[in-house]
Amino acid sequence: MSDIIAELQNDDKNKNAAVIKINASKDEEICKKYNVTDVPAFVFISSKLMGDNVVGNLVGANVPLFSKKFEENVEQLQKFKGKLENLINKAPIMLFMKGNRNTPRCGFSKQAIALLEDHKVSYETFDILEDFEVREGLKKYSNWPTYPQLYVKGELIGGLDILKELAESGELDQTFIS
């Protein structure tokens, strides 16, 4: 199985996939967490981008089935990454926030909306409270742990603190046109 795993990991389309080998007799906590009772066992986890959900498992050294499940897991990750990229690029200026422009559901989101409105820019919003996977996945995708998050032409600008700094320095308007 080690050769098959190495071959799959060397394929460019699988570059974001990881396989971690665990010694079942030494790592009992992990075995309990993932309900591993027989070896060899393989647990397929969606990825940190999607919240570390178990999406399948396999007991035994069944090479064709392992390859199939591995590739399905990679495909699922690629689809999710594509979903995030489509949302980020839905509009030239995109604000991911709690609530929407008409009904912000936290003070930070309300302040971000006020800044955008003050600068009279056209923007779209996405309510992260409506989609748990997007809410958690976007934090990991952009390596930004909090909301709101502002994207301009597909690039993360930052959160409310960054928006305030840019507004105070007079650079916010330039950010929208660059």
UniProtKB/TrEMBL annotation:
Gene3D superfamilies: Glutaredoxin
CC annotations in GO: cytosol; nucleus
Molecular function (Gene Ontology), one example: metal ion binding
Entry's Gene Ontology BP terms: intracellular iron ion homeostasis
Keyword Cytoplasm in record: no
One Pfam family of this chain: Glutaredoxin
Keywords, sorted A to Z: Iron, Iron-sulfur, Metal-binding
Domain Glutaredoxin residue range list: 93-157
Protein known as: Glutaredoxin 3
Species whose genome carries this gene: Araneus ventricosus
